[in-house]
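Support case: oxa(dethia)-CoA complex. Customer-provided input:
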Amino acid sequence: MTIRAAVKGVGHYLPDRIVPNSEFEAIVDTSDEWIRSRSGIERRHFVADGQMTSDLATRAAQAALADAGLQPDDIDAIIVATSTPDLTFPSVATMVQGNLGLTHGFAFDVQAVCAGFVFALTNANALILTGQATRVLVIGAETFSRLMNWQDRGTCVLFGDGAGALVLEAVEGDGLASDRGILSTDLNSDGRYKDILFVDGGTSTGTTGHLVMEGKEVFRHAIEKLAETAHRALDKAGLTPDDVDWIVPHQANIRIIEGTAKRMQVPMDRVVVTVQDHGNTSAASIPLALSVGKARGQIKPGDLIVTEAIGGGLAWGAVVLRW
Ligand code: UT7
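Agent response - structure generated as follows:
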């Protein structure tokens, strides 16, 4: 008997305000045409004043719990992947724990920027496999609109706010690739690239700071590293790209998504794409895409899914799971 961390429920939350590309034409020298053709983004959601990452995370968690048919008390661990915590500390995860009225178990944040959800899933998997937890809420939640430099057309048009969540629970498997749940994970980082994507604030400045990105460089690494990590994760599970029902990639740029699928020789009709509606929501993008993919009827029980993401650090990785 093998213990697996299997998906029991999924949900998401997007703030009400939808911002079309055209709104940026009044702020910076850009056009709807440029944003669509270079990134695939058509619109994104932005939080309202006073609406915090923990609020989005809590709403997504409630949606995932409802989908799982569970109550907050059924959960024994909460992991939030975020780079936009309400405060430096405590963690967003403990805020969610408080909001849900949960007084047992434990909660913590994971910070691996756009790859955060892949890192959080890997941590949740390890907690379940080692018997530390039996049901884990894994949340990706971000308010990147609060990190934008509104004078920098190279970044401010790309990001959005939102949250998505999964409930993972321990189930019995056979130790085979036909099992439900997480089958393999592959994590990587390389701090030599810390200067191509960062936020220029923190304790060193006493400010929150703004996002700074060498887009072309990040793009180059993404194209190279994402297919590699996805292949490695599939290898570890004894699977090949032919076995994949859905790639659910980090949603940063349609050209990166297409380039990665092409390298993996997986056709685009087996890729869940939400970047047009959400923009880049960093650690929230994969759970948002899983939730939307299920709601659209794309993702079904038994489907083999590969998630992959890269972001600041650089940090990148992939998770193979059977829904
Ligand atoms: O999620 C974390 C990881 N992040 C990513 O994966 C993002 C990776 N990078 C990208 O997605 C792309 O590099 C971008 C979408 C950011 C940019 O696309 P690009 O094809 O690499 O464009 P570029 O940066 O080479 O810029 C091309 C031109 C430049 O003008 P010149 O120098 O050729 O005259 C830019 O100044 O486009 C200009 N430009 C814009 N023009 C209109 C940059 N931003 C804009 C804009 N509107 N918003």
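The CA atoms of residues 79 and 123 lie 8 Å apart.

Case will auto-close in a few days if no follow-up is received.
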